[in-house]
Amino acid sequence: MRRSVGAFHRRLALIFGLHLLGVLICVMLGWSSVAPPVAVFVLIVVISVLAWLAARRQWRPVGRLARVVDAWDERPDLDALAPSRLSGGADADVVSLARGLHGFAKRIAGYNLRERNFTRDASHELRSPLTVIKMSADMLSDESELSKFGVRSVKRIQRATREMEALIEALLILARESDMGAGEEEFVVNDVLSKNLDDLRQMLEGRSIDLELEEPARFALRASPRVFMVLCWQLIRNASQQADHGTIRITVLPGAIAVSNRVDAAPAIDRHGFELAIAQRISERFHWPLELRTRDGTEHIASISFPDTLPA
After folding, report:
1. What whole-number distance in Å separates Cα of residue 187 and Cα of residue 228?
2. What's the pLDDT score for residue 183?
């Protein structure tokens, strides 16, 4: 069916033009005493209601598109945006708008799919050489004839390997969008942090940074402990990038985890670091709000809130 451009505006103009004409006729009937004022008022109301219903019918395709776009998330409903879903009386301008939104949503969906596939494939491909590097570094560390420089180099390799493992784990979590509930279990965050504290300290080995855990509160979560620890590690690593020495403190608060570090000077917080970007993506994915703030100009705090906590 051929649709003419601008027909939507012409139909609206016709509706309101007829409405104005009907109101004028009713006024003339009342002015000339052909009809009583009550009948004139009733006629004006009826004509206005009919005009409103007709305009609403013409606006229906636009309203439907607005509701579909308003309900968009990371996966737009492509079928709901298809121009073929519009009514036969839809204007060509509305069809053009629907076609453009449908194409835009399809490109976004394709981009998201390619990004997830690339992240997943790249992460899997990196695991094999990373395992080889890790095993080789562990074997070298057992050699008794290594020089002090060799020992320091091996420790740096081991630390970089652990950091790369955590990064690959984070990328895999972001790539598995469909596995939102994978690996979920009920766990106490204090116990998980205490269990992994030594591993976290090993990742910071070689730096003049202390890692402390404070537990003024206890609570549990129904989630993936692996995702929780990856998120905490990204915040700890981001805090370690802001200073070469000092103390990073992990504090368990009621329904929240805070990672803070105090520095001597007051450098600007790097809110666009790679670690922080990954942490923000994970917090958005699992609906754990992340907040960054600075206290007294020297203490940087990153806190994660957990809306659905359980008693420990």
Report:
1. 10
2. 62
- Name the token pair of 257: 């985890």
Say if residues 92 and 4 touch (Cβ distance below 8 Å).
Answer: yes
CA distance 162 to 201: 11
Integer CA distances (angstroms), 153 to 94, 147, 237, in order: 65, 10, 20
The Cα–Cα gap between 51 and 19 comes to 6
What is the amino acid identity at position 70?
D
Neighbours of 272 (CB within 10 A): 8
Please report, for residues 2, 77, 91, 100, 238, the alpha-carbon distance to residue 105 in angstroms, rounded to integers and kept in the order given: 25, 8, 21, 9, 34
Residue 179 — pLDDT band, cuts 50, 70, 90?
A: low
CA angle 6, 12, 17 (to 5 degrees): 125
DSSP codes joined into one string, 219-286: -EEEE-HHHHHHHHHHHHHHHHTT-SEEEEEEEEETTEEEEEEE-SS-PPP-TT-HHHHHHHHHHHHT
pLDDT, tens only, 262-294: 766 544 445 456 778 888 888 888 889 999 888
pTM of the model: 0.58
